[in-house]
């Protein structure tokens, strides 16, 4: 690779990170800004062509992105809302696939039914990255976020399985066999779950024994790729394998060392930022090559197909989401579905139907001889861009307009944390008393007083948080004053260490060591 090619290769991630940085600083939704920027840049004369390779997207980008989301997700919360997640991740995907296929077959001349089913499977799965990010920032109820996360984790597997069956039927010149499709889905999902559990169990035992946080996180980086490749090698669902592995290891992460947990959070946040920035920029950059392939098509007719398909996927979700609430009740098997019956939460979930890179990767993965392949590519792109722009841009406004919030959940969390901190502090002080009484420790009285004060301050800080960090008359609480003053002291200490390093009175190694200690203390203050 020559220097020019290397620079062109670096141009994409560098530009994507620059745009992501601007959006984060301004508080704008990064995925939307990246797609729009890529769309505009694709028409700049002389801009190198970045072709979306479906194999790279599905085997390199998708596994770590899914794994990272699964690591941060709560297996227990997902289990509580498994019914609505199943209705969305499986039911809605299949419903969308079938209806889109029938409509596309009827509207688009010359599109075989099997090919129309492939198109339906391509545009069926949602990518809730931007919706979840906006929802968390604006305070959507936790259970709504959990449902969106669960749907995003599992719907790709349903859609990709239906996609494989439809494409195989097109290649074979036959219609899809429902029995064979069902058997393939059961096999794909079951074996994917088995691979994910086996790999995660083995890695979990290893991580609990590793005390080197760098090695532990190095091993963790290999898990999503290993889980995906292992399942795909036997024609099972690599997506489900990765998701199950991530959920299992995320649940077990609390049993690893503190260094592993701290580093893991940083590693996956950086990986998410880079991968998502590049992926959404790539989506926008596909505009020019896709449009160029449709030079022989009637623009008005193609635009009509795109509008019909976009409106169809939006309406189908709006029709299906209420069923996740009312259908279980009609069957007399309903449990709390996470929507709580609130029409506001139903509207929010219905509008969170943005599509993403999995749809485009599947479309680009169609065989070259696939019927009307270029038109399917364009329609997929139109649905992805349309949902990201129309639904994505209006999603924050909709949340604010209908007034959905998680204020009561935040108060309950603070109350539960305060009680837990009180119990933990009591246990810690009891253990300290045992050690002193048994004569295990011969320590100075001042040390014991400092330990007691620290345990009591931790519990008190949690209770003070219930008051918003202020006293009865709006004044700062002692813990708030402590944090503010200590933060200023840490800044002054850093300036001294940096000045002494610049004067060559201490070595860089000494500076790095003390800076790490100060950083950990400030991180603790910020968290509290």
TrEMBL record:
It comes from the Bacteria. GO terms for cellular component: plasma membrane. Its main location: membrane. The keyword Transmembrane helix applies. Residues 17-400 form the Cation/H+ exchanger transmembrane domain. Keywords: Antiport, Cell membrane, Ion transport, Membrane, Sodium, Sodium transport, Transmembrane, Transmembrane helix, Transport. The chain crosses the membrane at residues 6-23, 30-50, 56-78, 85-108, 114-134, 185-207, 227-249, 270-291, 303-326, 346-364, 376-399. Gene3D superfamilies: 6.10.140.1330. Na(+)/H(+) antiporter that extrudes sodium in exchange for external protons. NCBIfam families: a_cpa1 (TIGR00831). This is Na+/H+ antiporter. It comes from Planotetraspora thailandica.
């Amino acid at each position: 690779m020559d220097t020019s090619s290397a620079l062109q290769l670096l141009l994409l991630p560098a530009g994507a990170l620059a745009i992501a940085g601007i959006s984060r600083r301004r508080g704008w939704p990064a995925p939307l800004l990246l797609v729009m920027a890529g769309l505009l840049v694709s028409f700049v004369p002389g801009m190198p062509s970045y072709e979306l390779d479906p194999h790279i997207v599905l085997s390199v980008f998708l596994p770590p992105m899914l794994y990272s989301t699964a690591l941060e997700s709560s297996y227990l919360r997902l289990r509580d809302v498994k019914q609505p997640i199943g209705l969305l991740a499986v039911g809605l995907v299949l419903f969308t696939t079938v209806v889109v296929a029938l409509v596309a077959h009827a509207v688009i001349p010359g599109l075989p039914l099997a090919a129309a089913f492939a198109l339906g499977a391509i545009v069926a799965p949602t990518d809730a990255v931007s919706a979840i990010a906006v929802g968390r920032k604006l305070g959507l109820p936790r259970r709504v976020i959990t449902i969106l996360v669960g749907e995003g984790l599992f719907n790709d597997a349903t859609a990709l399985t239906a996609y494989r069956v439809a494409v195989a039927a097109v290649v074979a010149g036959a219609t899809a066999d429902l029995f064979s499709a069902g058997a393939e889905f059961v096999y794909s999902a079951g074996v994917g779950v088995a691979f994910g559990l086996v790999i995660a169990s083995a890695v979990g035992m290893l991580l609990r024994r590793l005390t080197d946080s760098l090695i532990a996180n190095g091993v963790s980086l290999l898990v999503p790729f290993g889980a995906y490749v292992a399942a795909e090698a036997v024609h099972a669902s690599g997506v489900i394998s990765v998701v199950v592995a991530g959920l299992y290891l995320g649940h077990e992460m609390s049993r690893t060392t503190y260094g592993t947990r701290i580093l893991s959070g940083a590693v996956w946040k950086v990986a998410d930022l880079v991968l998502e920035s590049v992926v959404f920029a790539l989506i926008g950059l596909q505009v020019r090559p896709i449009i160029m392939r449709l030079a022989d098509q009637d623009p008005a007719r193609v635009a009509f197909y795109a509008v019909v398909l976009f409106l169809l996927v939006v309406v189908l979700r709006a029709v299906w989401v209420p069923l996740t609430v009312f259908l279980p009740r009609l069957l007399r098997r309903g449990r709390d579905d996470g929507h709580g019956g609130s029409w506001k939460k139903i509207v929010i979930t219905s509008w969170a139907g943005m599509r993403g890179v999995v749809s485009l990767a599947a479309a680009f993965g169609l065989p070259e001889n696939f019927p009307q392949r270029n038109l399917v590519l364009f329609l997929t792109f139109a649905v992805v861009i349309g949902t990201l722009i129309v639904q994505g841009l209006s999603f924050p406004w909709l949340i604010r307009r209908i007034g959905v919030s998680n204020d009561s959940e935040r108060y309950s969390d603070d109350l539960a944390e305060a009680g837990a901190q009180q119990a933990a502090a009591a246990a810690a002080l009891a253990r300290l008393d045992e050690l002193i009484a048994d004569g295990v420790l011969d320590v100075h009285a001042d040390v014991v007083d400092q330990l007691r004060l620290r345990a009591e301050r931790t519990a008190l800080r949690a209770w003070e948080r219930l008051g918003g960090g202020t006293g009865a008359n709006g004044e700062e609480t002692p813990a708030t004053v402590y944090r503010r003053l200590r933060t200023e002291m840490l800044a002054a200490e850093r300036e001294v260490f940096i000045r002494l390093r610049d004067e060559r009175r201490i070595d860089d190694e000494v500076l790095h060591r003390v800076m790490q200690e100060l950083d950990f203390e400030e991180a603790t203050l910020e968290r509290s």
